[in-house]
Design brief:
By secondary structure, the protein is an alpha/beta fold. It contains five helices and nine strands. A four-stranded mixed sheet has the order 1-4-3-2, with helices on one face. Strands 5-9-8 form a three-stranded mixed sheet. It has a two-stranded antiparallel ribbon with strand order 6-7. A hairpin with a 6-residue loop joins strand 3 and strand 4.
Length: 226
């Protein structure tokens, strides 16, 4: 008998690239306007730098000792913008050597034809179909893809809850928390509530949400049973 399992949230957090000159790479990505999140060293053999494109949920890590890959071997990293002309203008103003706008002759990322990249934007100006590109000092290539409208099903919808539904959910949360409160040491009720509500709003049923809240308080916050 097959059962439908709830998918676990997994968010792409970081991609790692290889560079030959760490300071030069850091200066380049700062030049792009990307945020430097961290730059740390361990002795003489390790240095890790994380940078994040403006308003991106995913970051890039490079440095010394972070990967054994050959510098410049990343051929198709990609960032998405909603206005390709504006993005190119910004990069050019920052002194970045960015390509002219192009599209793919046989469709995005299709390199099976001769001369796959064609100069100019997509003739039909379709979302996802127009690109530009630039390279970092080591030759790691970044594609800039213009996405003006997402196709159906391509976005994770954030859930909104009306007041009546939220009140009912809070009541449910209080009832389930009551059992944990009776069997465990003193704790902040809002920690349990937050864990339970987060799980419920992400699709878990009440039993799974209770288990998640119990697990967090017991393992992360060290709330022991009485």
């Amino acid at each position: 008998m097959s059962t439908t399992r709830e998918a676990v949230d997994m968010k792409l957090e970081v991609v790692i690239i290889s560079v030959s000159d760490v300071d030069r790479a850091k200066a380049f990505y700062e030049q792009l306007g990307w945020r430097v999140d961290i730059d740390f060293t361990v002795g003489d053999s390790f240095r890790g730098i994380q940078v994040t494109p403006h308003n991106s949920n995913a970051s890039v890590i490079f440095g010394k000792g972070v990967t054994s890959a050959t510098p410049g071997n990343a051929p198709g990293l990609m960032v998405v913008v909603d206005n390709l002309d504006a993005a190119r203008a910004d990069l050019l103003a920052r002194g970045v050597d960015v390509s002219d706008v192009f599209h793919f002759a046989a469709g995005p990322f299709n390199y099976t034809v001769e001369n796959p990249r064609v100069s100019g934007p997509d003739p039909e100006h379709r979302s996802y179909f127009s690109f530009a590109s630039f390279k970092d000092p080591d030759g790691n290539e970044w594609l800039i893809q213009e996405v003006t409208t997402r196709l159906p099903g391509r976005e994770w919808k954030s859930q909104t809850t009306d007041v009546a539904t939220l009140a009912e959910l809070l009541h449910e949360t209080a009832e389930h928390h009551d059992q944990f409160e009776k069997t465990h040491a003193e704790h902040n009720w809002w920690d349990w509530y937050a864990s339970y509500l987060s799980a419920r709003q992400n699709g878990s049923n009440s039993e799974a949400a209770s288990a998640a809240a119990n697990r967090r308080l017991e393992t992360e916050l060290k709330i022991a049973p009485k």
